[in-house]
Design a protein that fits this description.
The structure is a single chain. With about 425 residues, this protein is α/β, with parallel strands linked by helices. The chain has two domains: about 25-65 and about 105-215, 3-Layer(aba) Sandwich (Rossmann fold); about 75-100 and about 220-420, Rossmann fold (3-Layer(aba) Sandwich), CATH 3.40.50. It contains 17 helices and 14 strands. A six-stranded mixed sheet has the order 3-4-14-9-10-13, with helices on both faces. A hairpin with a 2-residue loop joins β11 and β12 (about 305). It binds pyridoxal-5'-phosphate.
Length: about 425
Amino acid sequence: MSRSGGSRRDDGSDGNDGSDGSFGAYGGQYVPEALMPAVSELADAYERYVRDGADGFPDDLRDRLREFGGRPTPIQHAERLSERHDCEVYLKREDLLHGGAHKLNNALGQVLLAQYMGKERIVAETGAGQHGTATAMAAAHLGMDCEIYMGRRDIDRQRPNVFRMRLNGAEVTPVDAGRGTLKEAISETMRDWATTVETTHYVIGSVVGPHPFPAMVRDFQAIISEEARRQLRERVGRLPSSVVACAGGGSNTMGSFQEFIDDDVALYAVEAGGSSLGVDEKRGVAPNSASLATGSEGVLHGARTKLLQDGDGQVAESHSVSSGLDYAGVGPELAHLVEEGRVIPTTVDDDAALEGFHRLSRTEGIIPALETAHAVAWLERATPDQLGECVLLTVSGRGDKDLESVVEETERREIEQAPAMDVFERGSGEQP
Ligand SMILES: Cc1ncc(COP(=O)(O)O)c(C=O)c1O
């Protein structure tokens, strides 16, 4: 096992921008020797094409994001939400990006980078299926072979996305280990990559993993806040008082926060509170995915970060009603920004997230992903001081993939704003 990163840079400053893989005490490259050549080659390619812009890579990516992806996505004033919370709420509509989620920003960036590196094959993991879908689409667009690893449990929860990946020509390989969710899918994809590095690039789906992934994925997702900053300035002539975004691994949050980090803007990362906070030490289970709010320092998937773990350092099984947030770790940069007090972690439980889902659907005509619904739900709990006068909330994805699980989960609970559930019974065409 190699370990690097977390050191001071040659110029004597802390390498907190991730250019050397460290974010304060977090980050690094904790990977088996077999993976070192792959991560080093990738770190070089990241420097060359993404940071230094060699061979016109940034322009190529920008053109493809526009033509294939549909960027820029709009910001939209949410009238009912603004009235309800007595402030101006603007939505950054990443749900309108091709594929229905912010994930394409990163997937297209990495698949294109793999092509510039001369790779022929793409592997990726997926939780909610949104990253897998985005990667399969990007691979088809660029004519590359693609294999997606997905936990068995997530395959059952996110069937529409499995169909979409297959339609785009990707192979979807089920992972049966553990609870059959994102953590196991990432481990399996890393195993594949370790033996196929010469021909294959691993498109990781969030700001997690060994350097250069956290910095690189952040850079690809930063387009969310780059656009939103410009759009808000043009539209209302100001910056937001606060930015609210849901956090699983943290790519939506890092992308939504990046261009506001040096400004006087409050940044809220909303995690999945699941059914309750804390870790059940005996069973090694956390009925939540709140690693920023409640986790402790450890190493997972190649980086030092904040994790849900028991007293012996065993990584706990996480839980969330939304599979895209169901992960025991979080990006190292986000962990660092929370530790510095720059980003404020908050949590929303499963019930509140379902309420958020129904509220946005009913009052604004936008059916959000269950992940996004956590951010919407947090507005209910926030104080006027926390939100300020102008809130920017990123709608990280659309909810089509979640319809079956939302109906099932809503039926089991009393959810404010939900329609009568009998309308969804098979064969029932009648309105209640
Ligand atoms: C729509 C949506 N939002 C948010 C997330 C959470 O991931 P991340 O924290 O990397 O943005 C996911 C993950 O699949 C997602 O599909």
